[in-house]
Amino acid sequence: MLKFYYSLAPNPMKVALFLEESGLPYEAIPVDTRKGEQHLPAFTALNPNAKVPVIVDGATTVFDSNAILLYLAEKTGQFLPAAQQRGSMLSWLMFVASGIGPFTGQCVHFKHYAPEPDPYAVNRYDFEAWRHWKLLEARLADGPWMMGASYTLLDMAVWGWARAIPFALGAEAWEQLPHVKRLLDTVNERPAAQRAAALKDRYTFKTEMDEQARRAMFPQNERLKR
Fold first, then answer.
1. Nearest 5°: phi and psi at 57?
2. 53: cis peptide before it, omega within 30°?
3. If residue 27 lies in a helix (H) or strand (E), which one and from where to where?
4. Alpha-carbon torsion 103, 153, 20, 25, what sign?
5. C-alpha 64: how far from its chain's center?
6. Residue 214 and residue 220: Cα distance in Å, rounded?
7. If pLDDT is split at 50, 70 and 90, which confidence band does 224 have?
8. Sheet of strand 2-6, all strands in order from the earlier edge strand to the far edge
9. pTM assigned to the model
10. Are 216 and 209 in contact (CB under 8 A)?
């Protein structure tokens, strides 16, 4: 059975959604990043970058959520766009991978977790997160899904990060991103999304952002103490 190493962060959740949509049987294995489990040798043997998600499918190990989505879509033949749309899908998927995720994630970090306020960093990442989301908003104004009429793995990738928008950009962000909100709400209504969200009930992850969690999640801060 396929093994799925996960937390409840945006990137693992979009893989959880694909697994539930596709009906692939899988074993969900929690990795508690605030306890530092992503740095244990057994996990870094699977992903040297010490990040979730990871899947192990027989002799094949895949890390990086977008690589996993592609792997699973090609394995199952599900949630891929029409052949003539493959280039467009790959372009937007890499846009999510290199833009939406990193800028939204850094926006969250500097607004909520940085040890000291940094107006320059907050301004930069808030601006870039907004810029990227507005490009997706414009794309979704032309159809119900990222690839038009078809629900694909790309929408799952967007869904994973769209769930974080209120925390990253503020609850009022939806006023400027109504089409992104429509996609989020539509996916949330799908039974597979509800099953994916129910992963939160299988394991109680550490929620405290205490010193242990800061050391595990933000190891760069240790350099400041030297």
1. -120, 90
2. yes
3. strand 26-30
4. negative
5. 10
6. 10
7. low
8. 26-30, 2-6, 54-57, 60-63
9. 0.96
10. no
Q: What is the CA angle 217-219-225, rounded to 5?
A: 135
Residue 5's φ and ψ, nearest 5 degrees, are -90, 125
Burial class (CB in 10 A: 0-12, 13-18, 19+), 75: middle
What does the alpha-carbon distance between residue 132 and residue 107 come to, in Å, rounded to a whole number? 12
**CA 70, CA 207: separation in Å to the nearest integer?**
31
The confidence score (pLDDT) of residue 223 equals: 75
Q: 5: which residues sit within 8 A by CB, 6+ positions away?
A: 12, 29, 30, 31, 43, 46, 52, 53, 54, 55, 56
Q: Tokens 């539509």 appear where? A: 186
- Residue-wise pLDDT for 3-46, tens only, equals 999 999 999 999 999 999 999 999 999 999 999 999 999 999 99
Gyration radius of the chain over CA positions: 18
Q: How far apart, in whole angstroms, are the C-alpha atoms of residue 136 and residue 106? A: 18
- Cβ 137 vs Cβ 177: under 8 Å: yes
